[in-house]
Amino acid sequence: LASQSTEATVVLRENGKMREKSLTMDTLNPQVKAVEYAVRGPIVTKAGDIERGLQQGQKHPFTEVIKANIGDSHAMGQKPITFLRQVVALCSFPELLDSSSFPEDAKQRARRILQGCGGQSLGSYSASQGVDCIRQDIAVYIEQRDKGVPADWDNIYLTTGASDGIVSILKMLVSGQGRSRSGVMIPIPQYPLYSAAISEMEAVQINYYLDEDNCWALDINELHRAYQAAKEHCHPRVICIINPGNPTGQVQSKKCIEEVLHFAYEENLFVMSDEVYQDNVYSPDCQFHSFKKVLYEMGPEYFNTVELASFHSTSKGYSGECGFRGGYMEVLNLDLEVKAQLVKLLSVRLCPPVSGQAAMDVIVNPPLPHEPSYLQFHKEKRAVLGALAEKAQMTEQILNTVPGIKCNPVQGAMYAFPRIFIPPRAVEEAMSLGISPDMMYCLRLLEETGICLVPGSGFGQREGTYHFRMTILPTTEKLKVLLEKLRDFHIKFLKEYASLEEPKR
Amino acid sequence: LASQSTEATVVLRENGKMREKSLTMDTLNPQVKAVEYAVRGPIVTKAGDIERGLQQGQKHPFTEVIKANIGDSHAMGQKPITFLRQVVALCSFPELLDSSSFPEDAKQRARRILQGCGGQSLGSYSASQGVDCIRQDIAVYIEQRDKGVPADWDNIYLTTGASDGIVSILKMLVSGQGRSRSGVMIPIPQYPLYSAAISEMEAVQINYYLDEDNCWALDINELHRAYQAAKEHCHPRVICIINPGNPTGQVQSKKCIEEVLHFAYEENLFVMSDEVYQDNVYSPDCQFHSFKKVLYEMGPEYFNTVELASFHSTSKGYSGECGFRGGYMEVLNLDLEVKAQLVKLLSVRLCPPVSGQAAMDVIVNPPLPHEPSYLQFHKEKRAVLGALAEKAQMTEQILNTVPGIKCNPVQGAMYAFPRIFIPPRAVEEAMSLGISPDMMYCLRLLEETGICLVPGSGFGQREGTYHFRMTILPTTEKLKVLLEKLRDFHIKFLKEYASLEEPKR
C-alpha cells in the first residue's frame, strides 16, 4: 500500500495520510477511454516490439517487419517530390534564394509564400485560417480542378493535416442531449478518425454500410435506412463520405454523389466529404468527381444551400508528405456568424504549421509547362502514381488467387480491404481469447511472417464478416513478397483450422 | 423567406418544403460558442481591417498598425537563428547535405534527425509521441537544465506547439458531472488558451488571483482560498501554473514553487506547469526554476508521487519559431495505463509536424563549444535575449512615467500587463456601449494611434481593475514610438473623461 513506485495509485504520505493519484483509469475522462484508433493500435505496438527485438538479435521466422498498416508513403520508400522540397527548403532558409543550385520557379514560389508570412518568415504565426496567398492559390486550384466552378478563398482554411479540419467541423456540429443529440452518419467500413472523434465528442455514430458485393459502392437505400433508424434516437445532422474510399479503395460514381447530395439537401444534413485521395485514382474506368462540382452541376438551388466541407491533405496523393501535417478544407454555404465561430475556434490553436502550408501550396501550384521544373516534376509525379496503379492491380490480382480471400478492385486511395474467410474453429478460438477473429488473424500473421496489417474490426464491417486493411505502399518487390507470404500464411491458417465447411470464395 | 442567399438560414425548396441550414448559431455546439480567445479577438480583426485600409489608401491618423497583441517574434522583425534554419533546410532537402555551404554540425544534426524518421524523410509520420532520437535529446537537455535531475525519454512527448500538449492533458483530466465535475485551477490573469479549453470541455474553471501588488507573485493563501471555495461545487483535480508568467511577466521564486507543489501533493492535484518562457528571464534578480527540479529537491516522497506535466515550445525563448508549431511535454508519475491512453489519444491525430520536431531538436541540442556554429549561434542567441531584456526594462520604465498607468517589472516572458486607470465617466460610457472599459480603451487606442494591444479582460483581472497586455517584441525604435504614442493617448484619454476624481498611480 505504502509503495513509492510510480505505478501505485495510492501512497502513504509522511504524515500518514493517503495520497491518491489524480489521474487513474477510474478518473480518466471516459470519452478518452472510449476512443479507439486501430491504425496505430496493439498490432502496430507489437510490430514495433518485434522490430526492436530483431535489431537486438532476437530470432523470428522472418528477418524484417513489413508495415502495411498505415498510409505512410515515405516510410515505405517513396521519394519526396523534388520541387516541393526545394520550395520548403528555400522558405526555411531564405539565404538559399541566392543559390544557383535552385531553379527559378521554386524560388518564385518560395518568395511568394514568404511575402505572405509575417516578417517574411516561416517562423511567424499565420492567420488562423492560413496564409492569405496560399488560400488564394488553393481557390485557383479548385476552380481548375472543377472546370471553372467558382471558388472563393474566403471559404478556404488551412489545417494541420485533414484530421484537424474534420475534427474542427465535427466539433461545431455536435450539440443537444438525449434524442436531440447530434448524429453523424459515417460509412462502414470507415477511417477510424471518424469514430474516434465521435466517441470523444459523445456524438451519436450512425453507420451506413457500403456495399461490398458492389465494389464498396455507396447505396442510397442504405443511407435512407440508416437515417430513418437513427432518427428514432438522435438528431442526424451530418453525413461523412470518404471518396476515394479509406479503407475500401472505391471511387464513387457521379450518379452516386448526386444521390448523396440530394439526400443531404432533403434531410438538411451537413456534408463532410473527405477527398484526401482525390489524386489517387488508378482504375481507368473511374474518375474523381468532387462533391462540390457535382453540387454545382445540380443547379443553384443545391449549390447555394447545401452546407459542404471538403478536406484535402499533403499526406496522400503523389507527394505523400504526412510529416508536414499540411491540409486544407473548403466550406460552402456556411452561415456567416457560424463562420466567425469557426475562425474563433481555430484561433485557440493559433495556426496550422506554416511549413505544412507551404507544402500544400506547392501541391496546388505545381510547375507550369513553361517553367524549368516542369519536366522533372511531372516525371516524378507520374512515377509515383504509375507505381501505385500497378501495385493496386497486383494486390487485387494476387489476393484473388488465394482461396478464402476476396478482394474488390483497388480503384483508388492506397488500400485494399479484402474479405477473409476465417474458419469457425478459428472464430471460436478468438472468442475464447476475448479478441476479434480478424485481430487474432492479424496477430498470427505478424508473428509468423512479420507482416503488419490492421484488422477489419478497427474500421467496422458487417457482423460475421472479416477483413484486413493493407496499404499498397511497399515497393513493388516488397509488396510481391508480402502478398506471397500472406497467401502462404492464409492457406496454412485455413488448413490448421479446417473443418467440414468449405472456405467461401 | 425564400431567399437563395447563403446568409439565409431557411430556404424554400423547389417542392415548396423548407430547407433549414444544418449549422446555425442556434444549433452550434454551445461549448464552441462559449469559447473566448482574446489574443486573436475583435481588436485584432479590426487591426487587420485598418491595415488593409491603409494599403488601399484610406486615411488614418497614423501610417502603420503596430501589432503588440501576440507573442509572434518573427512577425515583429526578429531574425531566425541561422543554425536552426540550416538544420531544418537540410532535413527538408537532404541533397544539401552535399553542399559545402552548410556547416558540419548542422549536417550532423540533420543526419541524426533523418535517421530517426521513417524512410529517412521528414515526410513520414513519426510515432505519435515524436521521433525517438529527438525525445532522447530532449531528455538529455532537461537533465542538463536541471543539474542532473534524471529525465526519462519515455516521459517525453513531442507536441504541436505547447497548446496541443496542454489541451491533451486537460482532456484526460476532465470527467464527472455536477459537483464531481473536474475543476481546473488557473491563474488570473491567465493565457486564454486555458479558459478556452476549459469552456470547450465543460470543465469548471477555478480562478486563483495573482498578487498584482507583489509583482504578480503567486500567493499560496489565495490558492487555498480558491481551492476551498471550489470544493463546494466541483472536484478540483488540476492546477495550472504559467512560469514565467503570461500575460503578467513575473518569474516565480523557488519558495513559491515549493509551496505550490506541496499544496498539490496534499490535495492530490495534477500539476500542469507551462514553462514555455523558460529561456525568457531578464531581471538579474530572477532565475528560472523548473517545477520538476524543485519537486526533485523536495525529496523522493514528492518526486515519486506528484503527477506533473511540463510544457515547452519552439515558439518563444530566443528562437521564436511559432510557425513551426513545435513543442514537447514531459510527464512525471503518470499511471502506466493512463500513459497508454494518452498515447492512444495522441495517435488519433497521427503525429506532431516533423519539421517542428526538428526545430525543437535544435533548441535542445545547440552547437557545442568545439563545433563550427558555436560562436555565431551564441552571438545570435545573446542578441535576441539581450534586446528583449533591454525592451523589458524600457517598457516598464516608460509606462511608469505615465499618470494613471502602473506597470510591474517585466521579469520574464514577452509581455507587460500594466494596470490602467480608466476614469468613471469612461467606464460608464463603455458599459452603455455594452463592452468592457478596457476593450473600449484598446479600441480607441487602435483607432487613434494604430497600436494593437489586447484588453486585460481577455486574460481576467480583479473586478474593477483594468489592464492591457502588450508584447515587448517590436524593435527597440518601434517600441519606443509605441510607448510614447501610448503615453500621449493615455493622457489625452484621461483629460477627455476627467472628472473631479484624481487618477490613481
UniProtKB/TrEMBL annotation, chains A, B:
Listed under GO cellular component are: cytoplasm
The name under which this protein is listed is: alanine transaminase
Q: Which GO terms describe its molecular function?
A: L-alanine:2-oxoglutarate aminotransferase activity; pyridoxal phosphate binding
InterPro entries from the entry?
ALAT1/2-like, Aminotransferase_I/II_large, PyrdxlP-dep_Trfase, PyrdxlP-dep_Trfase_major, PyrdxlP-dep_Trfase_small
What organism does the UniProt record list as the source? Oncorhynchus kisutch
The record's CDD domains line, in alphabetical order, gives: AAT_like
Report the EC code(s) recorded for this entry: 2.6.1.2
KW Thylakoid (keyword) present: no
Q: Does the keyword Transferase apply?
A: yes
**Transmembrane stretches, by residue range?**
none
Q: Which GO terms describe its biological process?
A: L-alanine catabolic process
Assembly notes: Homodimer.
Q: What is the recorded function of this protein according to its Swiss-Prot or TrEMBL entry?
A: Catalyzes the reversible transamination between alanine and 2-oxoglutarate to form pyruvate and glutamate.
Give the SUPFAM superfamilies listed for this entry.
Answer: PLP-dependent transferases (SSF53383)
Superkingdom of origin organism: Eukaryota
